[in-house]
Automatic annotation (TrEMBL):
Binds 1 zinc ion per subunit. It comes from the Archaea. A zinc finger (C4-type) spans 18-38. Pfam families: Ribosomal_S27. Transmembrane segments: none annotated. SMART domains: Ribosomal_S27. GO terms for molecular function: structural constituent of ribosome; zinc ion binding. Its cofactor is Zn(2+). The lineage of its organism: Archaea, Methanobacteriati, Methanobacteriota, Stenosarchaea group, Halobacteria. It comes from Natrinema zhouii. Belongs to the eukaryotic ribosomal protein eS31 family. This is Small ribosomal subunit protein eS31. One of its GO terms (cellular component) is ribonucleoprotein complex. Residues 3-41 form the Small ribosomal subunit protein eS31 domain.
Amino acid sequence: MAHYELYGDDGSTDGELCPRCGDAFLADHGDRKHCGKCSYTEWE
């Protein structure tokens, strides 16, 4: 059972891919975006 949907009906995503590793979506934590794979972080 998925708690979220990655792709819309047209195959698009709302998530932003990591600019460093490109394999994972960035998690939005409100004050920052974080990649769980390579630990890349963008502070807002």
